[in-house]
Design a protein that fits this description.
This protein is an alpha+beta fold. It folds into two domains: 37 residues; 54 residues, SH3 type barrels (Roll), CATH 2.30.30. The protein has a five-stranded antiparallel beta sheet. It is rod-shaped and about 95 Å long. The N and C termini lie far apart (95 Å).
Length: 113
């Protein structure tokens, strides 16, 4: 029994890693990064770009929905804020980046007719 244990310990001590294992060990990490890039990072960047373009297209008269669910039409705008009319003579200030959806003034006029 002791001889078997000595033989096993001796075999474990003699085994060495192959010479190219350093590069092969990095391959799973590289593969995981590539997968994360295409599944998470790239789609998020596209969404951010689309949102930034939407915010830049806003103009007076557009109907919007904010992140908080407030629906109204743009009465006035500045670089960072919007004045939104939510009812007759009821206006609130909203940050531009809180706009989630909008309908252009032309589309809103066509819907009402």
């Amino acid at each position: 029994m002791n001889e078997f244990l000595l033989f096993t310990v001796n075999q474990i001590g003699q085994s060495q890693a192959p010479a190219g294992s350093g590069l092969a060990g990095l391959m799973p990490l590289v593969l995981m990064f590539v997968i994360f890039y295409f599944l998470l990072i790239r789609p998020q960047k596209k969404r951010q770009q689309a949102h930034a373009e939407m915010i830049n297209r806003l103009k007076k008269g557009d109907e919007i929905v904010t992140a908080g669910g407030v629906v109204g039409s743009i009465f006035a705008l500045t670089d960072s804020e919007l004045v939104v009319e939510v009812a007759d003579r009821v206006k609130i200030r909203v940050l531009r980046n809180q706009v989630q959806m909008y309908k252009a003034a032309e589309e809103a006029a066509e819907k009402e007719e």
